[in-house]
Design goal:
Blueprint lengths: L14 H6 L1 H38 L1 H5 L6 H13 L5 H9 L12 H16 L5 H4 L7 H16 L9 E5 L8 H10 L3 E5 L5 H18 L4 E5 L12 E4 L1 E3 L2 E2 L5 E3 L1 E6 L9 E8 L1 H4 L5 E5 L5 E9 L3 E6 L3 E3 L4 E6 L2 E8 L4 E3 L2 E3 L4 E6 L8 E2 L5 E3 L1 E5 L2 H6 L5 E4 L4 E9 L2 E9 L4 E3 L5 E2 L12 H13 L2 E4 L5 H13 L6 E6 L2 H5 L1 H8 L5 E6 H8 L1 H17 L4 E4 L4 H6 L4 H9 L5 E4 L5 H16 L2 E2 L2 E2 L21
Parallel strand pairs: 1-2, 1-31, 2-3, 3-27, 8-9, 18-21, 27-28, 28-29, 29-30, 30-31
Antiparallel strand pairs: 4-16, 5-13, 6-7, 8-12, 9-15, 10-11, 10-14, 11-12, 14-15, 17-25, 18-24, 19-20, 22-23, 22-26, 23-24, 32-33
Helix pairs in contact: 2-4, 2-6, 4-18, 9-10, 17-18
């Protein structure tokens, strides 16, 4: 009986024999058909995106004619990107990835060029000719030119990048920067690229001193540093609150472990005085001050019945400065005893002190009335059974709020620590039902922010104070940031004021800090692009409250994308490494957040006692991340941990 001929190819068959196999031919043919079908479908989808991009550009032709010539290419690219993002292209991206092509995940800075590059490859896969409409419409910028435009605009506005670090660093100046030249010099030395002066604080005299210190540091260190001014904008804040008890409080500085890092400084004075920054001043009467010497001790029983001891470290005719290692609350008529070697040598009585505002305590379910005008805020009035007879009240001085708010609109107070819903609107009063208070019971104080994310406030972004400040800003600034920008008219008003001060080309920064500003971002960008020199600041503090903290990460990503499409630099701002700046130790989440800031062109630090350390830390983070990330693109530099050898796994036995 003869052997059956096997249908399998011998194990030693050549590749040529395998190619001749009918099954292999069928599989290859099927794969080719499937690939071509996928490519045809993808090409049709990309062609549709391209057509929509051109259509949107044509629709905005009138706007483009008024765009600054230097930014017209950028404006066209922004419109192309917006057209693409009007579609959900996730299934198309999956098809392109299956075909081994770009999935259009990095087209922001060069949208049309990216679409055309993908289409050219799809044409080859489909075996078709290049359509006539694509032969006749060139992309406004190539892939390389789009990236170069963003880099060029960033250098022009924020200054050139430092060696090894692409992102610039902006630092907010505290009041003491006007008195301490070394403070400013240390910041420049450690890598500050832009000095930020907030016009909501201090005044022209202090601002001028800060700039003088900066110019001196630049000469000494041979480094350039720009100056940016933030206009204060309209203040939507709680009004003053009625005073409570008269009390002086001091507390030593402690670290996160509760360990004291610096004693409190208390100045007892027989004459009116303001004291130095960080000191608590207590007025006294008696012979204690005149008898005090360095090394003496002052004892007292504070308002809580706790014994406290202070050490005298400095004396003058009218005051003695002391250090305290424990917290104390002192009220008028408190008795003080001066001791030397355990002997009593002097006495004093605490004099009258201004009463501090009493914070309003609020819980979920409470009612709060927001009242128009300079009304003193106060807690709720309760009857003898603890029931509310009159709700808590807080003032708000901006009349536009009362004209624009509607029942059902949300309201957030004090950076979102207290939230509520407006239940009733009257000409001079808004009744709010509190829906959430952080920690169960939250304390509302004066000068705390009010956010109305559902309300389109008809507020001018420039106040009378802003226009007055612009006279100084125009002479000294490299850029000016506009707070509370909400609509194109706000930008036009700022540009008009800059022309009036004969600085029409001064760079401007649009602070995106409200839900309305975010929702109108494309219109704001196109309006600002009527002239060169525009950047955007993501003011994440107010913005997080307005859009909801659960959406903040998503929203700041979208701002980065749109600004990259407009070739416009972005300042990543608010609470970057705040725990480090204020307390000397960063949280893990803050370090990750700072690393994310490397995707912006500039990162802003706020003030704090550890700001020099924070600046040094941020420089290191940005230097490291710059080797790994460029905008959304991961950079695959060599990883040291990738070097492996079998020996590193240990000995293995094969049975």
């Amino acid at each position: 009986m003869g052997l059956k001929k096997s249908s399998r190819l011998p194990s030693g068959s050549s590749a040529e024999q395998r190619r001749r196999s009918p099954a292999t031919k069928r599989q290859g043919t099927n794969a080719d058909v499937a690939t071509r079908t996928l490519a045809v479908r993808a090409r049709r989808a990309v062609e549709r995106l391209r057509a929509d991009a051109l259509a949107l550009e044509q629709e905005f032709a009138g706007v483009l004619r008024h765009t600054a010539p230097e930014l017209r290419t950028s404006a066209r690219n922004l419109l192309h990107y917006l057209a693409v993002r009007q579609h959900d292209v996730r299934s198309l991206q999956a098809d392109l990835a299956t075909l081994g092509l770009s999935s259009l995940g990095r087209l922001e800075a060069h949208t049309m060029a990216s679409l055309d590059a993908v289409l050219e490859l799809l044409d080859r896969l489909c075996g078709g000719d290049l359509p006539n409409d694509r032969r006749n419409t060139a992309a406004p910028c190539s892939i390389g030119e789009g990236n170069a435009s963003l880099a060029r605009h960033t250098d022009a506005i924020l200054g050139p990048a430092r060696a090894g670090r692409q992102a610039r660093i902006m630092v907010t100046m505290p009041s003491e920067a006007a008195q301490d030249p070394s403070y400013v010099r240390d910041l420049v030395l450690q890598g500050m690229d832009i000095m930020r002066i907030n016009c909501a604080h201090d005044g022209p005299a202090a601002w001028a001193q800060m700039i003088r210190h900066l110019r001196s540091a630049e000469k000494t260190l041979h480094r350039r540093c720009l100056v940016s001014f933030d206009l204060a904008g309209p203040k939507l804040r709680t009004g003053p609150i009625q005073p409570g008890v008269s009390v002086a409080k001091w507390r030593p500085k402690k670290n996160r472990l509760g360990q004291m890092v610096a004693p409190a400084r208390v100045r007892f004075s027989t004459l009116p005085t303001e004291g130095e920054p960080g000191e608590t001043v207590v007025p006294v009467a008696g012979d204690m001050v005149s008898n005090a010497r360095i090394g003496d001790q002052i004892t007292l029983v504070d308002a809580r019945g706790r014994d406290r001891v202070l050490a005298v470290i400095e004396t003058t005719e009218a005051a003695c400065l002391c250090e305290a290692r424990e917290t104390a609350y002192v009220i008028p008529r408190t008795r003080l005893v001066l001791k030397r070697n355990k002997r009593t040598i002097g006495h004093a009585i605490v004099g009258a002190m201004p009463a501090l505002p009493e914070p309003i305590q609020l819980r979920a379910g409470d009612v709060l009335d927001i009242v128009r005008g300079e009304v003193l805020g106060r807690p709720a009035v309760l009857d003898e059974l603890g029931r509310t007879t009159d709700p808590a009240v807080v003032g708000c001085s901006l009349p536009e709020v009362f004209r624009c708010v509607r029942p059902g609109h949300r309201v957030f107070l004090d950076d979102g620590r207290i939230s509520g819903v407006i239940r009733r609107v009257e000409p001079d009063r808004l009744r709010v039902r509190v829906t959430h208070a952080i920690g169960g019971v939250a304390k509302l104080r004066d000068e705390k922010g009010i956010n109305l994310p559902d309300t389109d406030l008809k507020l001018p972004a420039l106040t009378a104070k802003d226009k007055e400040d612009l006279a100084f800003v125009a002479r000294h600034a490299d850029m000016v940031a506009m707070s509370f920008v909400q609509r194109p008219e706000d930008i036009r008003e700022l540009l008009s004021q800059l022309r009036k001060h004969k600085v029409p080309d001064l760079c401007i920064v649009l602070k995106i800090e409200t839900l309305q500003a975010f929702s109108r971002l494309p219109a704001l960008l196109l309006s600002a692009m009527r002239r060169p020199g525009v950047a955007v600041m993501v003011a994440r503090g107010d913005l997080g409250v307005e859009v909801g903290f659960e959406r903040l990460a998503e929203v700041q990503e979208e701002i980065l994308w749109l600004c990259e499409a407009a070739h416009m630099p972005v300042v990543w701002a608010t609470q970057v490494l705040e725990s480090l700046a204020k307390g000397g130790m960063p949280s893990r989440a803050e370090v990750t957040d700072a690393a994310m800031g490397s995707r912006a062109e500039c990162v802003m630090l706020n003030k704090g006692p550890y700001i020099v350390k924070t600046l040094r830390f941020l420089c290191d983070v940005l230097n490291r991340m710059g080797a790994h990330q460029s905008k959304k693109t991961s950079l695959l530099r060599k990883l040291k941990i990738s070097d492996m050898h079998p020996a590193t796994l240990g000995a293995h036995r094969t049975d």
